[in-house]
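Entry for zinc ion complex. Fields follow.
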Amino acid sequence: MRRERVSDDIYVFTSDLYVQVTASAIVTVDGIVVIDTLPYPQETSMMIDFLNGLRRGQIRYLISSHWHGDHTNGSCLFENVQLVSHQLCAEALLDVGARTLEDSKESQPALRDVEIAVPDITFDEGAMFLHLGGKSMQMILTPGHTHDSIVVYIREDKVLLAADTVMALPYFVWGDREEFIASLRNLLELNLECVVQGHGEVLLRGEIRDSITTSIRYLNIVHQKVAEVVESGKGSDALRSVDVESCGKSRIPLNGLIQDLHYANVEALYKQMIEAN
Ligand SMILES: [Zn+2]
């Protein structure tokens, strides 16, 4: 696990074990707020130990950005915290989240003791604030990667904890491409110094707008290119010609995983279009 600070009070933890997943913590005078957990219990425990070792107060809240296990598998390790999420996340955790966890346990013994933690506090509209120790944490619903995705904006620091709403490649197989575009457009309205992505490096001021605008462009181009394949009648083999670079994104970040995410997007879109025809 890698640890860095993006402001005086905000720590980011990055997994060494699974595609550079990030979790964050905001340390306030009235206690600590954690956003997401790391994929494997071992790394989440290291994060909890580190935060307790700061002697800056208790971990009081854990916010889940969305239901995916790589961001929530550690929730059951937190004691005496209030777990906060969107209501859609709470519902998804109990349904698809629980099923996916059982499947993962079969192939990954490290997840053996993981249990779904059910959120204590949920909101069912577009946003909710948590005010603690002089920090205003705004949770904003940003569907796209999944239907329940939220980001957390820390106004005082102009830091956005974006989870999988901001990644090197927008991945919408579990969500919705058009909603993703709208959510990313909304992020451009925020005054941002720093964005913590759900996977990979932290984005700094000069990189943020470019990353978000190329993601919006990608979401438009990939749709257009898959539609061309469908219209050409060449069949799904022709999807291989729709490579990630021709859609305006690099295939280099996240150790080559980008290609896999991209082709999963392409195949999901193709399937949608064929079914709609
Ligand atoms: Zn995710």
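NOTE: The chain has one domain: 2-217.
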